[in-house]
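Table S2 (text version). Query chain:
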Amino acid sequence: MDGQPLFSDLFGVMAVITMVPVFFLWLEKKTKWRVFDFLPAIIWIFLTPILLSNLHTIPGIEFSIIPQSSDIYRTFRAFAVPMFIVLMLLDIDIKQTMRVAWRGAVVLVMGAVGIVIGCVIAYGMFKSGLPENAWSGFGALAGSWIGGTGNLAAVAEGLGTPEELIGIVVVVDNLVYLVYFPIILTCKRWAPWFNRFTGVTQDEIDARYAVGNDVEKKRHEVTFPGLLTLVAWSFAAILAANWLAGYIPEVGRVLTKGTYTILLVTTFGIGLSATPLRRIPGTEPMAMALVYIYMTMIGASADLAGMAGAQWFIAAGFIAIAIHLVVTVLGAKLLRLDVSMAAVASVSGVGGAASAPVAAAYHREELVPISIMLALIGYALGNYLGVATAYLAALL
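Corresponding structure-token output:
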């Protein structure tokens, strides 16, 4: 068959693409294997389609399961990426977050700037060993560590990052996180020393966490009219963003129509979060479903032969996250944060909404709702600062 995929039609490809995330999410929940503590479902959801579309590169195998390139992938990405941006940002409540945990939010922003600085410095140090267009990969990596997987996808799509480079970014993202997350958990043991260093008292800590109990909880009853309303307004935001982006002059390799579209969709999503749309349940599951299918398609599109320079990217990733941690600690010192709030402010960006509540619960239960709000702030910042990172790296 000389590399021909077994499934190349719409229904065959989509059946495989959607079944991959369904299988691994089920397997993670059903078995609770410890391997998922170190390699979460999302990494298997990304790696498996790489194998399925690259089987023909293995000696003795002359076929693949799904194609590396397909109109199905391009069509889905065209509407799914901007749609999950709008859906993710509809949950954000900047006013309440600043009222309850403004110190944590400020440190989150400082840590996000640390990610930008770290990524640009790391790119400058290793650019001679990095693949072409690596600046766009660092933009996607910054988007992921400031917001989450959805930001990685959005920034990569806006910048036109090659699929094989996205593959390297995902590997670096997860490999660095395997070292980073245990530090976030372990630092709870450093509380006496850290709190003395930042100058915060126990009375201040208790008073801040008491306010967190007033965080408004969003209801979870999903309705058909609600879902239809979310989809309709998402497409309206996408339409407006595409129309306006056509009137903005392009600048260099970074500020293109695709980039402007992603930034405008982000802005519209934040704006819509100030309307009654924010109270409609169902935004998170819809957004995450689109993100996971997108990541499966990106994995399927990756060419293993083009994933060169990963070792330098990995080294650069560790340097970037180290700079982020230094800036976060300095921010905690400046704003007199305890170790738990500082850790949650950091992981709310780097780990996103999936990891932030886990770390928060490990440190203090009162931090769980605060961590979710901070993670949403990270989602809002991720696309803007991811593009800024790519722009600064491209200047080098």
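Notes on Table S2: The chain has two domains: 4-68, 78-395. The longest helix spans residues 94-126.
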